[in-house]
Amino acid sequence: MDRQTANISSEGKYLTFSLGSEEYGIGILKIKEIIGMMPITALPQSPDYLKGVINLRGKVIPIVDLRKKFAMPAQAETERTCIIVVDVSRNGARSLTGVIVDAVSEVLNIKAEQIEAQSSLADAHSGNILGLAKVESGVKILLEIDQVINSDCCAPLQLAA
């Protein structure tokens, strides 16, 4: 896919959120809901960024701490810390996963011309990043959330729906 096609396919609405001083975005169609922090049941012998699981209305959902996943320093939870429940594709099946973020910001409509294609980024991050959105308030890192979640994180965790 050429750069222009990649930009057009990345165009759309994004839920933006912060992790430390950085701003990220996830395509709004991937978002199921945003919930406050709740007790998380830890799982033995799981990666440190897999915080555990929660019971959300009868469904067991794995919870990923994006700060740890992205090797960022830990930070105490605040009243704005929350869990974004995303619908991801894992091994050809759809599943729900929660990601812990510092704070949800807003929903932005990002146009193709605002997106710097991920092909211009370092190869190490290209699978996790759709592109960089240039907006009035700065730059938002647009995540390919299926890749972020599936990159060795929850692969050993196969929960029945």
Helix content: 10-25%
Tell me the number of helical segments per DSSP (H or I, 4 or more residues long).
3
Number of domains: 1
> Structural class, from secondary structure content?
mainly beta
Shape call: globular
What is the highest CATH level, the class? Mainly Beta
Separation of the first and last Cα atoms: 34 Å
CATH fold name: OB fold (Dihydrolipoamide Acetyltransferase, E2P)
For the secondary structure, the number of strands is 11
Report strand %.
Answer: over 45%
Oligomer: single chain
Mean pLDDT: 85
- Rg on CA atoms, Å: 15 Å
Largest sheet descriptor:
6 strands, mixed
The side-by-side strand order for the widest beta sheet comes to: 8-1-2-11-10-9
Task: Give the SSE order as H and E letters.
Answer: HEEEEEHEEEEEEH
Low-confidence stretches: 1-6, 153-161
Q: Would you identify the CATH H-level superfamily? A: CheA-289, Domain 4
Please tell me the CATH architecture by its name: Beta Barrel
Would you give an account of this structure?
- The chain has 161 residues and is mainly beta.
- The chain has one domain (3-150): CheA-289, Domain 4 (OB fold (Dihydrolipoamide Acetyltransferase, E2P)).
- It is 11% helix and 47% strand.
- It has 3 helices and 11 strands, in the order αβββββαββββββα.
- The strands form 2 sheets. It has a 6-stranded mixed β-sheet.
- The protein is globular, with a radius of gyration of 15 Å.
- The model is unreliable at 1-6 and 153-161 (pLDDT under 50).
